[in-house]
Amino acid sequence: MKKIVLTGARGALGTSLRPALAGLADTLLSTDIQDAPDDLAPNETYVRADLARMDEVAPLLEGADVVVHFGARVDEAPFEELLGPNYIGAYNIWEAAHRHGLRRVVYASSIHAVGLCETASGIDTREPHRPDTFYGLAKCFAEDLGRMYWEKRGLEAVCLRILSCTPKPENLRALGTWLSHRDMVHLVERAVLAPTVGFTVAYGVSNNDRAPVSNHTVPFLGYRPQDNAEEYAAEIEAAAPEADPQDMGYTRLGGPFAKVRLGEGAVSLIKAMGKG
């Protein structure tokens, strides 16, 4: 490829993705609302930009083949605070991609698009939206945007419903939901390189014995995760209290996002779960 654009390049996942994406194209253009990192690849350029500003976003996509859209505010918050980065930002990316004739958008969606589904229900990629928060609703909006731009304008999209992407699983819930950074990079590479995808939804989850979701409908992506949270099960189970069967943090796919009030942050609850 001639050019890939990565948004959210300063986030934890974006930082892991940058070296791999730089190896897939002549040029990687990375962007975020923060200042540039100090470890740019030889073929990587960096532009600071606000996703909510079309005049800042659109020029970045000129000449690109694919945009990997990982930029967003990553927590629940009042709708008004998410509107710019998560809702308008998604529209700006898809519209700019259409204007510049890109082939594909690879989007960091989230399990929170279906976060109120029961953990034990065994869903696959065909599950209807059931968001748990305004944050999850933004993921539904972007997925529907991606389907519409494919069906009306022929712009391909792969929406990756990422579960719990951390260096290692941190709590009981993550024994099912963990996505290792290695598997995350592999998943994004396959979403970029698969020959044809149309509009595709896939779950970002490692090869966990206890995975609560299935990618059996999308084998054509070629995603073959290698890591398994079961490796950490004995250590996590020994340190954790018994899970409450009435706790929506465990009984719903969204975990803590499923139990917080709309507009209230959930990341702090995730950290608390990691302590026991």
UniProtKB/TrEMBL annotation:
Residues 4-162 form the NAD-dependent epimerase/dehydratase domain. Belongs to the NAD(P)-dependent epimerase/dehydratase family. The keyword Oxidoreductase applies. One of its GO terms (molecular function) is oxidoreductase activity. This is Uronate dehydrogenase. It comes from Wenxinia saemankumensis. Keywords: NAD, Oxidoreductase. Coiled coil: none annotated.
